[in-house]
């Protein structure tokens, strides 16, 4: 059964090599072929987390907007969350640009190394 788990996990992520043996399905130990694989997975996990946070904020915003007609004081909270979401989205775009740039540099370096 453990072998099945290990194979299933490895198949879902080529960078991953093993699962945790603690028996906790939420706890996963991952080994990487290379440091750059580790970086890519970390970037991906950060993206997922950021998207979840933004989704939670958007739901909260909708909830607050629906209540604000009853509570005029809610308006400033709605405005605060809206501006925070805008800033997060701008930061997200900036991060995406930096990631693309660093990936491009990595590929260039790999090509240079291959020439040596």
From TrEMBL:
Q: Where is this region: Disordered?
A: 1-29
Compositional bias (Low complexity) spans? 10-21
Q: What is this protein called?
A: Uncharacterized protein
Which source organism? Answer: Hanusia phi
């Amino acid at each position: 059964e453990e072998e099945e788990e290990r194979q299933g996990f490895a198949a879902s992520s080529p960078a991953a090599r093993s699962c945790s043996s603690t028996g906790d399905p939420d706890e996963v130990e991952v080994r990487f072929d290379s440091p750059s694989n580790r970086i890519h997975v970390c970037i991906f996990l950060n993206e997922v987390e950021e998207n979840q946070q933004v989704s939670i904020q958007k739901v909260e915003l909708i909830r607050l907007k629906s209540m604000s007609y009853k509570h005029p004081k809610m308006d400033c909270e709605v405005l605060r969350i809206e501006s925070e979401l805008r800033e997060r989205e701008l930061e997200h775009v900036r991060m995406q640009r930096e990631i693309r740039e660093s990936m491009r540099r990595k590929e260039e370096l790999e090509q240079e190394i291959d020439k040596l």
